[in-house]
Amino acid sequence: MTLYSHVSLRTAQKIGSLLGLSAWYLQTDERRIAQINLTHCFPEMDPAERTRLAKRSLQESGKLLAEVPLVWLQPASRLSDRVYAEEGMEEIRRIKQSGKGLVLIVPHMGNWEIALSQATKVINMTVLYRPPRQRWLEEVMTLGRQATGAKTAPTNASGIKQLLAALKNGEGVAILPDQAPKKIGGSAAVFAPFFGQPAYTMTLAARLAAKTGAEVRAVHVERLPAGKGFQISLYPVDDAIYGKSTEKSVQAINAAVELCVRKCPEQYQWSYKRFQVQPDGKRSIYSRNKKPKPAN
Fold it and tell me: What is the greatest pairwise CA distance in the chain?
């Protein structure tokens, strides 16, 4: 991976596009899941257009996979001239000066690792992450993110304490809000609409904002064509995020993520089982013995 990380961004993206096409033509589970998600989230879209969107989504996900070693295993300065984020970074500087702390909501789209590496140049960051199943990948992930200056916090009680401490110290934390918890129950997650579908969504970002008074921003990362780089934008989240209602706070989070996705839907990770957990014990929409039905 270290040797590979020396390839150019454009070359990495070409490799990633081929990986995505392979996943498409080999009829992988990623293709099936992407098509199911898009059927539910864009029922009004022409089926042929949904198919094209699913195919492009797999190509963009392949590009992310091929880009990550360049971000984790090379100095951030290598890609800095291809990252366009001045307005967003200025917003982070302003929040840092206020001392309030910052919660970055970072959807699985574009290359979110680029956004994290840029944010750490401006403010101390702690990144919440779910350890992967492969131990070697966890080591690479941790070392890669720490190389940017960011701290990492696991998805457990000690990790949440780490995030709270960072925010109370006026620092920033990053949360990928569209990772679906696997178990129903407790206050860790609630169902909230996402593209008109009930999505089991973490309440952590909302609870952190309520406890610390930190400002919350959604991060939109768009991959530019032909290896030209990345455009990073920050968007405010509806003020409901700061209210007492957990349900309305989580709805505000999903609405912010949906806004980002609609700007560049092909770069969202549609191959993720976002709706795996269903309300009222309903069968998963990804079950192989059940054909997906378009949403009403």
Answer: 54
- Model confidence pLDDT, tens digit, residues 17-66: 999 999 999 999 999 999 999 999 999 999 999 999 999 999 999 999 99
Query: Taking the chain, what is the end-to-end CA distance rounded to the nearest angstrom?
Result: 45
- The DSSP secondary structure of the chain, one letter per residue, reads -TTGGGS-HHHHHHHHHHHHHHHHHTT-HHHHHHHHHHHHH-TTS-HHHHHHHHHHHHHHHHHHHHHHHHHHSS-GGGTGGGEE-HHHHHHHHHHHHHTS-EEEE--SBS-HHHHHHHHTTTS-EEEEE---S-HHHHHHHHHHHHHTT-EEEESSHHHHHHHHHHHHTT-EEEE-TTPPPSS--SSSEEEEEETTEEEEEE-HHHHHHHHH--EEEEEEEEEEGGGTEEEEEEEEPPGGGGSS-HHHHHHHHHHHHHHHHHHSGGGB-TTS-TT-S-GGGPPPTT-TTS------
Q: How many residues does the chain have?
A: 296
What pLDDT, on a 0 to 100 scale, did the predictor assign at position 123?
95
What's residue 136's pLDDT?
63
* Distance of alpha carbon 76 from alpha carbon 70, whole angstroms: 9
Digit-coded pLDDT (tens) for 62-96: 999 999 899 888 887 888 899 999 999 999 999 99
Enumerate residue ranges in the chain where pLDDT < 50. 292-296
List phi, psi (to 5°) of 196. 80, 5
pTM: predicted TM-score of the whole model, two decimal places: 0.89
